[in-house]
Amino acid sequence: MDLSVFFQPINFSEYIQELPQSAIGKLIQIFDNPNQFPNCEGVQLALIGVKEGRQSINNHACANGPDVIRKKLYALYQGDFNLKMVDLGNIKAGYEIKDTYFALTSVVEQLIKNNIIPIVIGGGQDLTYPMYRAYEKLEQIINLVAIDPRFDFNSELSEINSQSYLDKIILHQPCYLFNYSNIGYQTYLVDQSTLNLLQKLFFDAYRLGWVRSNIEEVEPIVRNADMLSVDISAIRFADAPATAFTSPNGFNGEDVCQMMRYAGLSEKLSSIGIFEYNPQLDTHEQTAYLIAEMIWCFIDGFYSRKHDLPSPNSSSHVKYRVSLENNKYEIVFYKSNKTDRWWMDVPYPNQSPKSKYERHHLVPCSYNDYQLACNEEMPDKWWQTFQKLI
Fold first, then answer.
1. Is there a contact between 46 and 117 (Cβ–Cβ < 8 Å)?
2. Using CA atoms, how far apart are residues 160 and 162, in angstroms rounded to an integer?
3. What is the pLDDT of residues 310-334, one digit of tens each?
């Protein structure tokens, strides 16, 4: 597929010329020549702007966000890694919203197929839906993690928008969503009935206060994600004012950068989107600067991956067995000797040697989950996964 038909080049030539030689803008391929689309051979990361805000509730100007963000990102210095990244430019907004969705789905599908992680910036969080559709094209059942103060679920709306994309994903047939996790919801911003629905579906949600007090527990949650969707309104106004639904409460800049590094460290994660940035509401481009730092932390995590997934009979992991409820359940834990990271092995029906859920039975967890099991308490992650597998 010729991806160039979906993109518009960007014109930052003069800005890039003034950057230091070790700045990111000097080190990556950039689609700035309409007659020369970047060669993606050997590329590992691809930056994609989407100038689409028609379905972002009260925040349409988020369509103008990508270029402001990339200008801040270009000025950051490369870390201790060999950056193999391309900026493909901005996806053209279609005549209708479905045209933009089709373009984004096609681009994300093609990049993932070529082992390139798309980093999508700009536009409303409704763009999570066409990114999800890319996995449908790949026939891959996935885990979706959203950093979001709300559950974007509204079954009363017939059209998809930034506040209803989640029910479109959950209700979409065929369903390729195995698990959904929300990180940082604020109780006074969510409908209790929606929280109850997520629990019935064995999805998981983590309150803002709990996450901020247990930030290290976010690592296994994000490590289990194939796709990460970030709503900028999850960050408090003091650190990120540039969105229509910002709040006095939320994550601070350090919190969200730490979570982005966790995402980069995950060998499973294959796409990421950062949405709802509205440059018209920004103060001295502070939010754009923070998003650039978030992307930098993701990149740094990506180049720090340890490739320590457990494998049968591997000597690089310690295996622990814990019995619960008078041997009714046995939980097998794996601990990496390289990183001290933990996993739980959840049994699943062996009806075929290639079960469609095969890649979901090994669940990232923490040492706290192991301690719970040793104290005769069933870890929530294990039980929720078990219920979806049986």
1. yes
2. 7
3. 887 778 899 999 999 888 889 999 9
For residue 52, what are the domain limits? 3-302
Give the number of other CB atoms < 10 A from CB of residue 89. 25
**302, 325, 360: which is the final residue of a domain?**
302
CA neighbor of 225 nearest in space, from 171, 167, 180, 162: 180
DSSP state for residue 267 in the 8-state scheme: S
Indicate if 134 and 224 belong to the same structural domain. Answer: yes
* Measured distance CA(197)–CA(192) in Å, rounded: 9
Residue 302 in tokens: 């990506």
Taking Cα atoms as reference points, which of 360, 379, 42 lies closest to residue 224? 360
Tell me which residue of 276, 231, 278 sits closest to 250, measured CA to CA.
231
Q: Residues 266, 337: one domain? A: no
Q: What is the pTM of this model?
A: 0.95
Per the structure, how many domains does the chain have? 2
pLDDT of residue 314: 75
Q: What angle do CA 28, 8, 168 make, to 5 degrees?
A: 100
Helix (H, G, I), strand (E, B) or coil at 177: strand
Neighbouring residues of 214: CB distance < 8 A, sequence distance ≥ 6: none
Same domain, 330 and 253: no
- SS3 for 112? helix
- pLDDT (tens digit per residue) in 146-182: 999 999 887 666 678 898 899 899 988 899 999 999 9
Q: Are 348 and 355 in contact (CB under 8 A)?
A: yes
Between CA 52 and CA 98 the distance in angstroms is 11
Helix pair 128-137, 97-113: axis angle to 10 deg: 50
